Amino acid sequence: MTGTSPADPALAFPFIGGRPCLDFVATLGRRHATPLERLPDPAALARWFAEAGLAVGDEPARVTARELADARVLREALYRVVRAAMAGQRQPEAADVELVNAAAARPDLAPQLGPEPWSARQPVRAALATVARDAVLLVRGPLLERVKKCENPDCSLLFLDDSQARRRRWCSMERCGNLAKVAGYRSRSRAAPAR
Questions:
Q1: What is the pLDDT of residue 126?
Q2: Where are the beta strands (DSSP E) in the chain?
Q3: Of 54, 72, 148, 159, which has the fewest beta carbons less than 10 angstroms from its beta carbon?
Q4: How far from chain centre, in Å, is Cα 155?
Q5: All structural domains of the chain with their residue ranges
Q6: Tally of CB atoms within 10 A around 51
């Protein structure tokens, strides 16, 4: 299954966050309702690395069950750290900070010239270190103020607002923006005959 789309379209990875750490956090969807786990098995994590452009070589990463469990724990710590920073909390939970810092301190993917864009002795740990470093740089940098949560109440995705006016409301127009437009149109259509 690695390198191919999942059988269930809901398990497709949304790469709309604008940063690797936000895309990784999006591997758990519908956080506020019944969560949708897009990393149900090690092969799914290997597929995410490949689709995110964080794979070493042409072969899929060999992900163990333990590495998958560690990746999910890191993902949730990243989410809480980013959300705390978005809320203006000066210091997120100490355990989350420690976990993210430990992951970011590991050797990350080394960029390479040539056909192989990355190299690493431990590709899974290195890819996760790269994602954790991205989160640290985002939380500590000026782009944090541009990180937003999708305004669709059924969506929990975070994204970097790179629009010129900085008024983006939806994770993407194709996903949530169009749903909001259709709902607004239907609401106005139902209200129009009542006038």
A1: 95
A2: 28-29, 36-37, 110-111, 118-119, 147-149, 158-160
A3: 72
A4: 13
A5: 9-194
A6: 16
- The pLDDT score that the predictor gives to residue 33 is 85
What is residue 145's predicted lDDT score, i.e. its pLDDT? 94
Beta bridge pairs of residue 148: 159
Question: pLDDT tens-digit profile of 80-93?
Answer: 999 999 999 878 89
- What is the tens place of the pLDDT at every residue in 11-55? 899 999 999 999 999 999 989 888 999 999 999 999 999 999 999
The CATH architecture one would assign to domain 9-194 is Orthogonal Bundle (1.10)
Q: pTM of the full predicted structure?
A: 0.85
Give the H or E element holding residue 182: helix 178-194
Question: What is d(CA 157, CA 127) in angstroms, rounded to the nearest whole number?
Answer: 21
Q: Which residues of 127-165 are buried (b: 16+ CB within 10 A; e: fewer)?
A: bbbbbbbbbbebbeeeeeeebbbbebeebbbbbbbeeee
Q: Which long-range contacts (CB under 8 A, 24 or more apart) does 165-174 make?
A: 171/14, 171/16, 171/17, 172/14, 172/16
State how far the Cα of 190 lies from the Cα of 193, in Å rounded to an integer: 6
